[in-house]
Structures are given as structure tokens and as C-alpha cells.
Amino acid sequence: MRFTVAAAGSSPTEYVSHHLGHLTVGEGLWTFHLDTLFFSIALGAVMVLLFWLAARRATAGVPGKLQNFIEVLVDFVDNSVKESFHGPRQFVAPLALTIFVWVFLWNIMDLVPVDYIPLLANKVFGLEYMRVVPSADVNAPFALSLSVLVLILVYSVKGKGLAGFGREMLFHPFGRNPLLWPANILLNLVELIAKPVSLALRLFGNLYAAELIFILIAMLPWWIQFIPGGAWAVFHILVVPLQAFIFMTLTIVYLSLAYEEH
After folding, report:
1. Which residues make beta-bridge pairs with 33?
2. Which end of the chain has less Cβ packing within 10 Å, N or C?
3. Stated pTM of the model
């Protein structure tokens, strides 16, 4: 693990602020973070390519290393879905696998030394800003969690029916008294909104903090960066799959709660 020093002549505040800036287009609400979009799509393409290669090279004989790895990963995710989701798994299992691998690839970009890709983008394309960790940009985790929210609503209707979902919104948790319906609806809406918010903020908070620490380490003299940088990278290797696992597991649990009748 090698870290580069801060650009000569820049203050610590300028250095940190620059590394936390995004390559953007548009203004206000319609500001798009092009670096987050690019790396999210690129890492998604890497994920698809890996699974396509594994499927193409799959054999009933002695499996290769890639096939072994993919089979272990698929079995792990499938068992997680079996334990938590008790409805039809034809869609939920592939969804959980996609979320786990994609978020894992997002997170692992945090282990790339903070100056390498931004400097390369500046030298080759003349770009001033470039952030490479999609999960450290709050927009990416929120976009993924909002997709989960849509699926929660879909599975609520699918499992209970539209009438059953409506009854749950009206009668849970305080009962059928019409005077309590507004409180029931309010609490259910708060619970519904809290799920994607907690999903997104948990992932974003952990990866943003990790990225910030890597940036601060990169400001140290080059001869001392290896000690704190190496220690933090080793610790962060544990955080990378853990956050992907938590996001996947909570998605499965939320879909299971939405599907089951209460």
C-alpha cells in the first residue's frame, strides 16, 4: 500500500476540500456527479463480466478458481436469503447477490491510494476533480436504498394484496379505532421512510469516514505514511465486505417483513 503526499503549496484545508469535491455537471437539484455515475457503472460492468466469465467457463468436472469463488459466493447469499426470506426467492436471491457484489466493489475502491486516479485523470483528461468511491457519495447509497424502498412497497402489495397492505397501514399498530388511523398511518410512514434512510446513511457514513482518514494519512510525510496507512487499510479490509453484507442482509429482512402478514 503506497500513499502519495499532498500537492506542494496546498494547505491541508485545500487538499482535503479538493479530494472531497466531485466532477459535476448541472446546477442545483439537477447537479450530476459524473465520477460517481462513471465508477458505479464501470464497477457494475466488472461485476457482470466476472459472472459471465464464470458461467461461460463453468464445468461439471474440476472447477477453476473463478468458478469455485462464484459458487461459494452464490451459496453464501442463497443461504442468507433462505434464512431470512420465507416467500418466493426467484427474484430476491439474485437481487441480494447483485447488491452484495456491487456494494463490495464500490467499497473496495476506498483502498486505492487517494491521489492516484485523480492525478491520472488530471494528467490525461485535464479533470480537476475525481472521486472514485461511489459509496462515499451520499447520492449512490440513497439511490440504491430508494430502489429497495420501491421493492418494499411492491412486496408489501404482493404478499398481502392491496387491501391487506391498506389495512396494515390503517390498523397497525394501535388497532381499528378510526380515531387512531392518523397515528397508525404516520407511524407506518415513518417506519417506511426510516428503512431506506438507515440503509443509505449507514453505508455512506462508514465509507465517507474511511475515505477522509485515508486523505488525512496522505497528508503525512511520505516516510511515515506506510505505518498508519497500512494499519488503517488492514482494518478497512474488514469494513469493506461487512458493510456490503449489512446492506444485503437488511434488504432481505425488509423485503421479508414487507411480504409477511402481520
Report:
1. 24
2. C
3. 0.92
Evaluate whether residue 1 is within a structural domain.
no
Q: How high is the pLDDT of residue 10?
A: 66
Q: Which of 239, 220, 258 is nearest to 114 (CA)?
A: 220
Judge whether 143 lies within some domain: yes
CA dihedral 82, 84, 88, 90 (to 10 degrees): -60
User: Which secondary structure element, helix H or strand E, spans residue 25, and what is its range?
Assistant: strand 24-25
Just list the catalytic residues.
Answer: 198, 202, 206
Tell whether 28 is covered by a domain: yes
Which residues make beta-bridge pairs with 32?
25
Residue 6 falls within a domain, yes or no?
no
Peptide bond into 173 cis (omega under 30): yes
pLDDT tens, position by position, 116-155: 999 999 999 999 899 999 999 999 999 999 999 999 999 9
Q: Cell numbers at residue 241, please?
A: 465486505
Q: Give the residue numbers spanning the domain of 252.
A: 12-259
Number of domains in the chain: 1
DSSP line for 188-255: HHHHHHHHHHHHHHHHHHHHHHHHHHHHHHHTS-TTTTHHHHHHHHHHHHHHHHHHHHHHHHHHHHHH
Q: 172 pLDDT band (50/70/90 cuts)?
A: confident
